[in-house]
Amino acid sequence: MNTPVTVIGLGLMGKALAAALAGNGYPTTAWNRSATAVPDGVTRLDTVAESSPTMVVCLSTYDVMDEVLSTADLRGRTVINLTSGTPGEARRAAAWAAERGAAYLDGAIMASPQMIGTPQAQLLYGGPKDLFAAGEPMLRVFGGTTVHLSEDPGVPLLYDLALLAMLYAAGQGLEHAQALVGTAGVSATEFQPYANAWLTHVIGPMAGPENAHAIDAGEHATDVSNINTNALAIGHVIRASQDAGLPADWLFAQQTRLEQAVADGYGSESPTRLIDYLRKEMG
Asked: Domain 5-150 adopts which CATH fold?
């Protein structure tokens, strides 16, 4: 018989999690601070204290989680926290849960609510590996890619925020590109096929195994596109943008790194070399 589970938080994602559990035969209860509909097969709880021994938490912030769970006796319970936040917050929450007598996993959901329960949904977990293994059959109902990354509960949110950094950088780049071609009256619809091909065949492969190996091994030789070429190209982008009245300040930091790498004698190498400059900037 499947383990009873309580979902704490019924926002869009919390509802999707509860629906996936109930739809896969788990006796599912849920609690939310405000009145809201519950998915089919889910029973609403009046208080957090009524929660099942296994709790899936999906709230707006870690501070809200602290406030909500402070009303419940956590001794002997398992808390699976899927609240968004920072690695530091996840580590503090793990210590806080341990002080309260609870077993604790922290996770990151790399999916939209509509993707929950599909093969495309990625859910990343950190914390005790044996705890993950014990709950893995239940956790897999949330998505096809469900993995344990580390005993460190902060690692899943590092992955989460690193991937979001890629998302926001790509999004800003696309917005800038559309605005730039728009200065010549080109519509986003006209530009879309070219942007999509560029993302697929040029930008996408940058996240491939060759670049990852180069960064890990510190080997930056290239016969594709070197730092000299990119230092010139980013200058062209910035000047054309400024000529069109389009802000380009978000590109200045990368331009500085490229030009410094040229000055340091790395112009013939791959832009993967720039990871060294970012690490230096970390101090």
From this structure: Rossmann fold (3.40.50)
Q: Where in the chain is the domain with CATH 1.10.1040.10?
A: 159-282
Q: Which of 244, 1, 228, 12 is nearest to 111 (CA)?
A: 12
Contact 256, 268 (CB under 8 A): no
For the chain, residues classed under CATH 3.40.50.720 are 5-150
Question: Both ends of the chain: CA-CA distance in Å?
Answer: 53
Instruction: Please list, in sequence order, all residues whose beta carbon lies within 8 angstroms of the beta carbon of residue 62, skipping any fewer than 6 positions away.
Output: 83, 85, 89, 90, 92, 93
Task: Record the pTM.
Answer: 0.91
Q: What digits encode the pLDDT tens for the residues 87-125?
A: 999 999 999 999 999 999 999 999 999 999 999 999 999
For 159-282, CATH gives 1.10.1040.10
Q: Are 28 and 18 in contact (CB under 8 A)?
A: yes
Cβ neighbours for 139, distance < 8 A, ≥ 6 positions apart: 80, 107, 123, 125, 132, 146
pLDDT of residue 144: 87
What is the rounded average pLDDT for all residues in the chain? 96
Q: What angle do CA 53, 58, 61 make, to 5 degrees?
A: 125
> DSSP letter at 3?
P
Answer yes or no: is pLDDT of 1 > 80.
no
Q: What residues have CB less than 8 Å from 230, skipping those under 6 apart?
A: 258, 271
